[in-house]
């Protein structure tokens, strides 16, 4: 692969576009893990590459009592621990200078008054021009009162945008309620529903791969593709998030959002241009065409005790905060169909789970076998069907397996890979998803955020599956930590004469 020469190492990985307007970035839920692990490190990396606006301020808001200095110090430690770039005092200081903290339980007037006062001060002293980006890193229950407060306090000066973390609602009904609640105060253009998978470079590369190359699109359909396999495997468990995970499960945590977005990007029609509504129109059509998998086409699992990467780990029911008889699923596999002309009868096998043997997110497009190989059967024993694999993470890249002749006398054919590795082709490290998404929200670009109708379609599908699950009681745990899920997941695909990609 050719080396792409980047001119300025400080701006690599995120192409330079216009600089965002001056603004204040307000984080609700600033004492949480997301702020520490993702948001502040992302802001720091944007500052490091000089991608933040000249006038930029951060206000953290959370229930915990904390002074401005304590907040700054905590954030400095977070940046040192989690940012992808080395810590530099000259980058951190200007960011920390414009940083404040407000203790509030979100609904109380006192906290909101104080926040409003700080923001006005920032407008006067630091030139943030009334522009506000409110980031909701709070549980869904905290959102309604926040929306009311912010909606009522809106001024006509500057722009206001809301970035809302997943889960957006808990089912179709609650997602609709939330949309109804937002509608009187904020327009759709002001609401940024985040799904951080869309911020991943490798996920966006699916669009580049499909629509910037003439060779894939003509064969990207039921005539040439045998099936698609999407895997979102994690080796980690629930990392102390029992109260959240107990009510979410793999279905609401991964399937409803990240997984369905991967399906949508793989299956969508080419948009007429790259404007946000064009891209989202095509994705929503895919979501609408997916029919609910029947009970035989969906498998759920929960991990028991086992070994992951050589270490013994507890079962899900033994995790702190999880009831010993929990029926929450930590694994889901499904066979789905996208019912349209391009994909009719082409299965999309998807699987996702915690405590699997390794972290791996891949989208594999398996093409049909060559119609008539003129070789003897023994010659092609080592040959698999052509497969195009998008490695979302780790080892980011794309590989295409092809049959090649094994050197030597006679004709033996084996599968080999043609690989594109990000690390080899581009000299730059990949930006974190949150950097891209925060920058896009500041620029008002909604392409990589999910629209109301997409979220609602995603919930309709999830609600139908979860309703069917209520009818029977799963025998959990049904897979040991460190294995590839319950045996029934293998049956799901093997019934069709296919198998999960090599484990
Ligand atoms: C989050 C889920 O949305 O995505 C987590 O809530 C999961 O449970 C995480 O671990 C995975 O994200 P990534 O970027 O590490 O693949």
Walkthrough of the structure:
With 503 residues, this protein is an alpha/beta fold. Helix content is 34%, strand content 20%. The chain is built from 13 helices and 19 strands. The strands form 4 sheets. Strands 7, 8, 9, 13, 14, 15, 16, 17 and 18 form a 9-stranded mixed β-sheet that branches. Strands 3-2-1-4-5-6 form a 6-stranded parallel β-sheet. Helix 8 crosses helix 12. It is globular and about 80 Å long. It starts with 22 loop residues before the first strand and ends in a 9-residue tail after the last helix. The N terminus is likely disordered. The structure holds 6-O-phosphono-beta-D-glucopyranose.
Taking all residues together, what is the mean pLDDT? 93
Tally of extended strands?
Answer: 19
| Structural class designation | alpha/beta
Helix content: 25-40%
Largest sheet: 9 strands, mixed
Query: Uncertain runs with pLDDT below 50, 5 residues or more?
Result: 1-13
End-to-end span in angstroms?
27 Å
